[in-house]
Every structure is written in C-alpha cells, then in structure tokens.
Fold this sequence. Notes:
Keywords: Bacterial flagellum biogenesis, Cell projection, Chaperone, Cilium, Cytoplasm, Flagellum
Order of helices and strands: HHHHH
Number of helices: 5
Organism: Roseateles asaccharophilus
Largest sheet: none
Distance between the termini: 66 Å
GO cellular component, one term: cytosol
Pfam family, one: FliS
Shape: globular
CATH architecture of the largest domain: Up-down Bundle
Number of domains: 2
InterPro entries: FliS, FliS_sf
Amino acid sequence: MYGNASPFAARTHRGSAMYSKVGLETDVLNASPHRLVAMLFDGLNDAMSQARGAIAAGNVELKSRSLTRAVRILDEGLKAALNMESGQLSTDLRDLYAYMCLRLTHANLHGDSAAIEECQQLLAPVREAWASIGAEMDRSRHAPARAA
C-alpha cells in the first residue's frame, strides 16, 4: 500500500486526504462564481503539471488520469461556464479550450509533454487575467466609500 509504511502512516495519509477534500468542498460551497472559475484554472494547471511529472516518471496510469481530469475541467467546467451570448471573447475562449482539449488528448495518446507545456503556456495569460479581475473586484469591494 505505502511501501514499508506502518498502518498508522496509511491512516494518517487517508485522514489528511479526507481533511483536504473537506476543505476543498467547503471552499467550493462558499466561493463566488469568480472564485469557482479561478479554482477550475488552478485545478487544470495542477492536472497538467501532474501529467507532465507522470510522463517524466513513466507513470502511464497517473498521466492518463491527470490528462482526463484536465480535459474534463476544460469541457465540463471552463467551457460550460462561458456565456456565449456575451460576444467575441467567449467565442475565442471556447475555441482555445477546444484546441487545448485536442492537444491534451494528443498528449495522453502519445505521452507528449511538450503538448502539455504548450497548453500551460496558452492558459497562463488567461489565468493571470482572471486573477487580476478578481484582485480588482476585491479592491473595489474593500475601498472606502467616497463622500459625494
């Protein structure tokens, strides 16, 4: 199970994993819509990083699981969250996410770490822009009201 780890270590690992899961579920329940999308970006980036590490380590199962998770975040999370009636930006993001899904599927089939890196580079400016919008929203929420 955990190599030469004791049963106590295995229970501690499971307990830690359960604690982390509860923390994530609490974050999701209390998060604003903006924060939920930021969490999807973070999860996508983490899944891609994990897949690159798995490819480097020769761990085919972890690579496949991580890339499947990344594609699901793109398709079922980020693409699904787009408001396609809001204009060209939504169309461009939908097309970017579709391209990334194709590249990540290619990476999964061929163990192509460079395709994953390409997707991370494509995602970075979108993720940073989204984070800056959140920071601006926080600043405006916490700014003192001006006298009229």
